[in-house]
Specification:
- It is a single chain.
- With 355 residues, the protein is an alpha/beta fold.
- The protein is 41% helix and 14% strand.
- It has 12 helices and 12 strands.
- It has a 6-stranded parallel sheet, sandwiched between helices. Strands 7-6-8-9 form a 4-stranded parallel sheet, with helices on both faces. Strands 10-12 form a two-stranded antiparallel sheet.
- The relative contact order is 0.11.
- InterPro entries: HTH_LacI (IPR000843), LacI/GalR-like_sensor (IPR046335), Lambda_DNA-bd_dom_sf (IPR010982), Peripla_BP_I (IPR028082).
- One of its GO terms (molecular function) is transcription cis-regulatory region binding.
- Keywords: DNA-binding, Transcription, Transcription regulation.
- It holds the Pfam family LacI.
Length: 355
């Protein structure tokens, strides 16, 4: 019977590079202490042999695995899914791998799932908590586990550090833009009330229209889908047209635009439309969609940096770097003005890079 190939060890790397085992260890853990020529020789041996670190052995020595657990509700919706991708990218950039687990749409079994992540070697856990259903999981895990919660309004929970994008600020920027464009009546096509993002966007809308003295209406809740946007738009068109509609996300705005086009309503000449999220393709809606772009890359970086900083130094390791300056716990989104709310905007614009 043919035996399987043996995984190369640090000793194999040392033999190939003609250095000591300790030198290989220094190249892997503290490369700046090794002369460049020696470091290059060791790196070449690592690549030739296909050597990879044994995280289990390292964890036994340092009590750290360099694994970050990520807990989600399994949602494929744009916001949670993009946040997850950003966290994974930031963890990789920081030298960590991620271990993903899902607790289902209502946060069921959150405590057990968190414990399983720790038993699998995670040093700490980032919880993506976009709605009320994840709060029980947050509360359960925070009792015993270092966690950072990526959320837009979950209640303060002892032991949990919150990192978020300021949804209300994004909504206020939309209303201010519409007012500057001459709109005096604005309708908010709201998202599901159990979602913290939807609550923040509604709160920012209400605050801004009150301050600016605009006529305002809030529709029944949608469910983030184009279908719900279209359904609510049909009901909206039974009454007088508002000057503008602010949809809680871009997918609902897409359904709204579809109905307006079918009814012969010109955008933005008769009704201005703004969404939220700046999903891939928003610049190529007809007309191109004004929207609010969330800084997902910085959100992931802030969450990972705060978790690592909160872990403290492990034995035989230097203290972790503090969270980089400029990574606030409450990040600002950016209004992107396109054709759907401005006759002077270009017909199309470049899409943001896909991460």
């Amino acid at each position: 019977m043919t035996s399987l190939p043996r995984r190369p060890s640090m000793t194999d790397v040392a033999d190939r590079a003609g250095v000591s085992y300790q030198t290989v260890s220094r190249v892997l853990n503290d490369p700046h202490r090794v002369k460049p020529a020696t470091r290059e020789r060791v790196q070449a041996a690592i690549e030739e042999l296909g050597f990879t670190r044994n995280r289990a052995a390292r964890a036994l020595r340092t009590t750290r695995s360099r694994i970050i657990g990520v807990l989600t509700d399994g949602s494929s919706l744009y916001g949670p899914a993009t946040t997850l991708s950003a966290v994974e990218a930031a963890a990789h950039e920081a030298g960590y791998t991620t271990l993903l687990a899902s607790v289902g749409p209502h946060g069921a079994s959150g405590e057990r799932t968190g414990r399983e992540l720790l038993e699998s070697g995670a040093d700490g856990i980032i919880v993506i908590a976009p709605h009320e259903g994840m709060v029980p999981a947050l509360e359960a895990i925070a009792r015993t586990t270092p966690i950072v919660s990526v959320t837009a309004g979950a209640p303060a929970i002892p032991g949990a550090t919150m990192v978020t994008v300021d949804q209300a600020r994004g909504a206020r920027s939309v209303v201010e833009h519409l007012a500057e464009a001459g709109c005096r009546s604005v309708v908010h096509l709201q998202g599901p009330p159990s979602w913290f993002d939807a609550r923040g966007r509604r709160a920012g809308f209400v605050e801004a229209v009150d301050q600016l003295g605009l006529d305002a209406e809030i529709t029944e809740p949608g469910d983030w889908s184009p279908g719900s946007g279209a359904r609510i738009a049909e009901a909206l068109l039974r009454g007088p047209l508002p000057d503008a509609v602010f949809a809680a996300n871009d997918h609902m705005a897409l359904g709204l635009l579809h109905v307006l086009h079918a009814r012969g309503v010109r955008v933005p000449e008769q009704v201005a439309v703004v969404g939220f999220d700046d999903i891939s393709g928003a610049a190529y809606f007809t007309p191109s969609l004004s929207t609010v772009r969330q800084p997902f890359d910085r959100l992931g970086q802030a969450a990972v940096a705060r978790l690592i900083s909160g872990l403290g130094p492990a034995p035989e390791e230097a203290a972790p770097a503090a969270a980089p300056s400029g990574l606030a716990a409450d990040l600002a989104p950016e209004l992107i003005v396109r054709r759907s709310s401005s006759l002077t905007a270009p017909a199309t614009t470049d899409e943001p890079p896909v991460s």
